[in-house]
Specification:
The chain is of the alpha/beta class. It contains twelve helices and eight strands.
Length: 308
């Protein structure tokens, strides 16, 4: 799937806070004539944890640095910066996977807690596919909040994509049933289902989502083809806990990371890949329709870690 926006300057702007932090701290630690010793390794590891890469990723890089020094491929402290860039790119490359339309309709189940940007992200993905000439339907299956239905309908009018809905308080499974029926009858390319992010208890929410998935599977064997969790980058560790709960209940196929717009440390992307072991399908760096972008590791690293 090709999104409307290029990675470019918008991502660089979105990651400016992380970039400035890493530029300053790396420069202070990786002084060219400084001895590469345990004190340097300790400072470097603390720096990477502070950049929100997570302790496991920080330790992985320090171990890599020790190996390179031992084999003589790194002889000066400042050579650890390009090594760090290569490490990040290699680490993230397997996690970069796009949304592909293999099935017709391709059913995408959008998951996540309220406030993560799930409804907006659903609309942005719909707009991106529509811009490619695909036919798209949206389903407002978050029937527990009238505001969620209204928000999706507002987006639908804005991007000229029909929204299948029922009244607030209706059974979400009925909305999904109607949406699948419409998608099959019209032979649309993509059906994107916006789901609830909060019910009275977590147990109720997960039970409801599992029910929706069963309805989809009965109507269209093999679907949903994508079950994406939308994570709000600034939530940090809470995001990982959320993802694990949704993964256990529904089975996730990927992550869409939103609000990576200068309010969060970009290192969280590394933590997602390391701890959740899920591909990153896209990242959001703003509120505009075209601010949802494909995850491209090399450009991400360029925007996150200055070369010098």
């Amino acid at each position: 799937m090709k999104f409307l926006a290029s990675f470019g300057e918008r991502l660089r702007s979105g990651l400016s806070r992380s970039r400035e932090f890493l530029a300053t701290e790396l420069a202070s630690v990786l002084v060219p004539d400084r001895p590469i010793d345990d004190a340097l390794y300790a400072e470097l590891e603390d720096l990477l944890v502070a950049a929100d890469l997570g302790a496991a990723v920080a330790a992985d890089f320090v171990n890599r640095a020790r190996e390179e020094v031992m084999f003589g491929t790194v002889t000066r402290a400042d050579q650890l910066r390009p090594l760090f860039r290569r490490f990040l790119t290699e680490y993230l490359t397997p996690a970069a996977q796009s949304l592909e339309l293999v099935h017709r309709p391709t059913v995408i189940l959008m998951l996540g807690v309220n406030g993560s940007g799930k409804t907006t992200t659903s609309a942005k993905i719909a707009a991106a596919f529509k811009a490619e000439g695909r036919t798209v339907l949206l389903a407002a299956a978050d029937t527990f909040r009238a505001a969620a239905i209204e928000q999706l309908e507002t987006w639908g009018r804005r991007i000229d994509v029909e929204v299948i809905r029922q009244a607030a308080g209706s059974d979400p499974a009925a909305v999904v049933f109607d949406a699948l029926k419409a998608a099959l009858a019209r032979a649309v390319d993509v059906l994107i289902i916006d789901t609830a992010g909060r019910l009275h208890t977590k147990t109720n929410l997960m039970t409801e989502l599992a029910k929706l998935k069963r309805v989809i599977e009965r109507q269209l064997p093999g679907a949903p083809h994508e079950s994406l969790i939308v994570l709000d980058a600034p939530t940090g560790q809470n995001g990982f806990a959320q993802a694990l709960q949704f993964h256990e209940a529904v089975g996730l196929t990927g992550v869409v990371l939103t609000k990576l717009d200068g309010t969060a440390k970009g290192g969280i992307v590394l933590r997602i890949v390391r701890e959740l072991k899920l591909p990153i399908k896209a990242i959001g760096v703003g509120e505009r329709v075209d601010d949802l972008q494909p995850f491209e590791p090399e450009r991400f690293v360029d925007a996150l870690v200055p070369r010098a």
